[in-house]
Amino acid sequence: MTDLLLGPFSLRDPARARGLASLLQRYAPKDPVRIVHVCGTHEMAIAQHGLRSLLPRGVEVLEGPGCPVCVTPTGDLDRAVKLAERGAIVCTFGDMTRVPGTRVTLAEARAHGADVRVVLSPAEAVEVARANPERDVVFFAVGFETTAPGTAAVLLDSPPANFYVLSSHRLIPPALVALLAGPPVPIAGFLAPGHVSTVIGARAYRVIAERYHVPVVVAGFEPLDILYAIALLLRQVREERAEVENAYPRAVSEEGNLRAQELLATAFAPSDAVWRGIGRLPGAGLSIRDELARHDARRAFSVRVEEGEEKAPGCLCSEVLLARAVPTDCPLFGDPCTPLSPVGPCMVGVEGACNVWYRYGERPEL
Ligand code: SF4
Questions:
Q1: In three state form, how does the secondary structure of 56-113 look?
Q2: Nearest CA to ligand 1 atom 3
Q3: Distance between Cα 108 and ligand 1 center (Å)
Q4: Does the CB atom of residue 326 touch ligand 1 within 6 A?
Q5: Which residue lies with its CA nearest to atom 6 of ligand 1?
Q6: Quick one: which atom of ligand 1 is closest to the CA of 325?
Q7: 321 lines ligand 1 (CB under 6 A)
Q8: pLDDT tens series, the chain, 366 aa
Q9: 32-315 in CATH: which number?
Q10: Could you tell me the distance, in angstroms and rounded to a whole number, from the CA of residue 24 to the centre of ligand 1?
C-alpha cells in the first residue's frame, strides 16, 4: 500500500484515486460492515465528492455525533437565551444562533431585543467585553477538542472581569466509547477526525482499540485521505486486527499538540455532560476549573433551566447521531425539514448530517 501513501501535491490525483478505489475492492469485507466517523467535515467531503459510490458493496460509512451544534443540549441553549434576555451580551458562533431550544433560538431572542452577537473566535468575545465594560459578556462556547483550546487560552489570559464563558465543550473519545457501549449496533471501525486528532494525538484512541477491539484510523479531509483511511480500516477488519492507525501523519502525531493539551488541562476538568439526543455521557464534557470560577457563567449567574425536550416530534436526530439511521430515513427530511426551516439540530449547522445530505443530495448508496 505504500505506493499509494499520499504525498504532498497529490491529494486529488486521479491515478491515485483509481488505485485507492481498487484497494477498497481488494479489502471488501465478507459481511456487511458499518464504519462510523464523527466529523461534519468528513461528511461534507464524502458527500460532496460522492465517495460512497466507491465503497465496496456492504460497506456503510455513517456520521455519528460529529457536529457540535447538533449535540449542544437544549438546557445550555435555554441558559444562553435567558442570560441574553436578562441583559448580558451573548457571543457565540453563527450556527448556534439558529438551533432550537425549548422556547426560542438565540436568533429569535435577538429579534425580540436581546443582545446576541456572532463571533469568529473567543478572542473576539473578549474584545466585546473590553469594549463594553459596563455590561456582562458571555461567550457561549461549543465544539470539541479543536475549539476548546482557544476558549482555554482566553480564560487563562486574564480576561476582563465582565467576561464569562458558558462552556458546552464536548470531548470526542468518550463519545466513541458511548457509541460502542450502547445497545448493540455493530460498528466495525471508526474514522477519527483529523483536526481533533491534531490536538489529542493518535494515542488518545488506544482505549477504543485495546479495550473494545474496534479499529480506529485517523483521517484527513481530502477525498483521497478519506479513501485511504477507509482502505486501512477495511484491511484491519479483514485481518481481524484492532489497532490505531494514523492516515494523516502530515498533521497528526502520536502525542498530539502538547501545548494545547496543557491549556485544556489547566482551564478545564472533564465532566459528565448531556449530548443532545444521546443523553448524559461520563467524562464527555469540559467544566471550568475552580481557579477560574469567577469567569464561569454557570456559577456567576443563577439561572434555572429545565432539562428540555431534546428533539421535535418525528425528528430522528438521536438515531442519526448514534449512527443508527441516515438522514433520509427521517420522514421529515426535505419536507418540512430543510436548512432554511430546520426541525431538528442536525439540519441547522453546515456540519449536521441532515444539512449535508440535503445540500449534496447524498444517498446511502449510489
Ligand atoms: S431531517 Fe430534520 S427532523 Fe429529520 S432527523 Fe434530520 S433534523 Fe431531525
A1: CCCEEEEECCCCHHHHCCHHHHHHHHHHHHCCCEEEECHHHHHCCCCCCCHHHHHHCC
A2: 315
A3: 20
A4: no
A5: 354
A6: 5
A7: no
A8: 545 554 544 777 888 888 999 999 999 999 999 999 999 999 999 999 899 999 999 999 999 998 888 899 999 999 999 999 999 999 999 889 998 888 899 999 999 999 999 999 999 999 999 999 999 999 999 999 999 999 999 999 999 999 999 999 999 999 998 888 766 668 999 999 999 999 999 999 999 999 999 999 999 999 999 999 999 999 999 999 999 999 999 999 999 999 999 999 999 999 999 998 888 999 999 999 999 999 999 999 998 887 655 667 899 998 999 888 999 999 999 999 999 998 988 998 888 999 999 998 855 444
A9: 3.40.50.11740
A10: 31
Instruction: Provide the residue type at 196 as one letter.
Output: V
Question: Does the beta carbon of 166 sit less than 6 angstroms from any atom of ligand 1?
Answer: no
Could you tell me the residue ranges of all domains in the chain?
A: 32-315, 316-360
Question: Which backbone phi and psi does 73 adopt, to 5 degrees?
Answer: -70, 155
Task: Please state whether 252 falls in left (phi above 0), alpha (psi between -120 and 50) or beta.
Answer: beta
Angle at 147 between CA 146 and CA 148, to 5 degrees: 100
How remote is the CA of residue 257 from the centroid of ligand 1, in Å?
36
Distance 92 CA to ligand 1 centre (A): 23
- Ligand 1, residue 358: give the atom nearest the CA: 1
